[in-house]
Amino acid sequence: MAQNYSKRVKGLKRGTKYASKLHKYFIWILLVFVILVFGSTYLYWKLERGGQGNLLEALWTILFTLIGQGEFANHPQTMVGRVIVFVLSVVGISLLGVVLSEVLARVMKYNLKAMMGLNRCKYEGHTILCGWNSRAELVLKELIASGTQVAVLTKTKPAELSHYDVFFVAGEPTSVERLEQAGIEKAESAIIFAERGEGLSADEIDAHTVLTTLAIEKRRPEIYTVIELLNPANERHARRTGVDDIVFCERTLADIVAACASQQGISSFISDILSYSDDGSALRAADIDPQWNGKTVGELFNAMIADGELPLGIMTQDEKADTERWDHEINPPADRVISLPMRVVFISRNAK
């Protein structure tokens, strides 16, 4: 029994060795196969058919001959034709089997790595979601609705991802290697969720979020980062990482609930302007065009209203901040002079 086991192990090792060689020389094998097919096509067209017809018909005949079908495969007229049929029947079909098996093996390997989150993301201008919680799917849905490509970086693949066309990377979001695998070099933004764990306090969860942000900002400082914190007292620690935006979901949710209670019927309005996946309207921000520099906010707002958009306010850069931060001003004076860089916040209809 031990002897049989030893033989099987040796056989597996030989098979692995041959597979490795096949993978290494695949390009050369593919090149020989292509030369064989097109060389046979030319010889068949020139010598067997005397140059009559076109090369495309000759190629079609050779391809059928390769699998043993067609009149030429059964009744070649010249000696050259017989040699072509013999070579294609012995060497050609063998090379075809090798090529097809290697192609299938590579496709299966890629799909397997994709399922396990081991492939490298090739997206550009995408958003990376780091971590996962109960709110992550809603954020993902809105990003996809806005036309943004998304890569998700988590330790384990969430079951919800099977419903969306996103790129998944398995790993720890604090790992620079995993961030590079998620395409951090070409990403436009990153969202770090407060990923809850069994027995972890709010401060411990925020600490992990800050560490992830630090890894992202150190690897690529110019990326726009948005993080979710549970404890507002930890904001001062997060700001030191260079984060662009901080969201306190639980506090924001409490503010919305309180507003809905005091301002009856406003809940549907809030849901509408915060959703990009329906056919309603949504809240947006955009850089003010250079042509408006030196003009007044009132002139800009009137032009936007004429285009069917509803301006709400402006954002200006905080010159005192160590990192790029924007201060907002809702309903600014109409005579306020626009001085770039400046952004405008407005409501407009979602694209159908």
How would you briefly describe this protein structure?
The protein is α/β, with parallel strands linked by helices and 352 residues long. It has helices spanning 2-24, 26-48, 55-66, 71-74, 79-116, 136-145, 176-181, 202-219, 235-239, 249-262, 266-273, 297-306; strands spanning 127-130, 150-154, 167-170, 189-192, 224-228, 245-247, 281-287, 310-317, 326-330, 342-349.
Write up what this structure looks like:
The chain has helices at residues 2-24, 26-48, 55-66, 71-74, 79-116, 136-145, 176-181, 202-219, 235-239, 249-262, 266-273, 297-306, and strands at 127-130, 150-154, 167-170, 189-192, 224-228, 245-247, 281-287, 310-317, 326-330, 342-349. With 352 residues, the protein is of the alpha/beta class. The protein folds into 3 domains: 2-116, Helix Hairpins, CATH 1.10.287; 127-247, 3-Layer(aba) Sandwich (Rossmann fold); 281-352, Alpha-Beta Plaits, CATH 3.30.70. It has a 6-stranded parallel beta sheet with strand order 3-2-1-4-5-6, with helices on both faces. The chain has a 4-stranded antiparallel beta sheet with strand order 7-10-8-9. The chain is elongated and about 95 Å long.
Q: What is the CA-based Rg, rounded?
A: 31 Å
Largest sheet: number of strands, sense, barrel closure: 6 strands, parallel
Rough outline: elongated
- What number of structural domains do the residues give? 3
Please tally the β strands and state the result. 10
Strand order of the largest sheet: 3-2-1-4-5-6
Number of DSSP helices?
12
CATH class of the largest domain: Alpha Beta
Q: Compute the average pLDDT.
A: 83
User: SSE string, helix = H, strand = E?
Assistant: HHHHHEHEEHEHEHEHHEHEEE
Q: What name does the CATH topology of the largest domain carry?
A: Rossmann fold
CATH architecture grouping of the largest domain: 3-Layer(aba) Sandwich
Q: How helical, in percent, are the residues? A: 40-55%
